[in-house]
Specification:
It is globular and about 45 Å long. The chain contains 4 helices and 7 strands; from the N terminus they run E-H-E-E-E-H-E-H-E-H-E. The relative contact order is 0.27. The strands form 3 sheets. A 3-stranded antiparallel beta sheet has the order 6-1-7. It has a two-stranded parallel ribbon with strand order 2-5. It has a single domain, classed as Periplasmic binding protein-like II (D-Maltodextrin-Binding Protein, domain 2, 3-Layer(aba) Sandwich), CATH 3.40.190.10. The longest helix has 13 residues, at 50-62. It has helices at residues 7-15, 50-62, 88-94, 109-114; strands spanning 2-4, 23-25, 33-34, 47-48, 68-70, 101-102, 116-117. It is an alpha+beta fold. Keywords: Glycoprotein, Ion channel, Ion transport, Ligand-gated ion channel, Membrane, Receptor, Transmembrane, Transmembrane helix, Transport.
């Protein structure tokens, strides 16, 4: 799922050509994985998986470049109940160190207050 800081960004993302400087993700098979290769891979070629296929196709259709990086703290994003500070990909988006996050996020009420989500690419359980 794509996660972004602002719906305004998402609308401009869809309607214009952008170069994304940073797109954080996590290694969560089968969504994002390091590609196994005997060659030294660099950049986006290091990754494969369902989320990678999604962003590759979206970028092809809308004409933008992106750079996938693993989130430095390895977290999706949760809010510390004491400090009220976020970590993970959510923090990267809030601090504008990332333009989009692509990962198998669980949409929670708390996360929805901090960032915006696209439509999920899968649903678990009954609603």
């Amino acid at each position: 799922m794509l996660v972004y800081k602002s719906i305004h960004f998402y609308l401009s993302f869809i309607s214009s050509f952008l170069t994304l400087t940073r797109l954080p993700s996590l290694q969560t098979p089968p969504y994002t994985m390091l590609r196994k290769s005997s060659d030294q891979l660099t950049g986006n070629d290091r990754f494969e998986g369902f989320c990678i296929d999604i962003i590759k196709e979206i970028s092809r259709q809308h004409g933008f470049n992106y750079s996938i990086e693993i989130s430095p703290d390895g977290a999706y994003g949760s809010k510390n109940p004491i400090t009220q500070e976020w970590n993970g990909i959510v923090r990267e988006l809030i601090d504008h160190r990332a333009d989009l996050g692509i990962v198998d996020f669980t949409i929670t009420y708390e996360r929805e207050e901090a960032v915006d989500f696209t439509m999920p690419f899968m649903n678990l359980g009954e609603w």
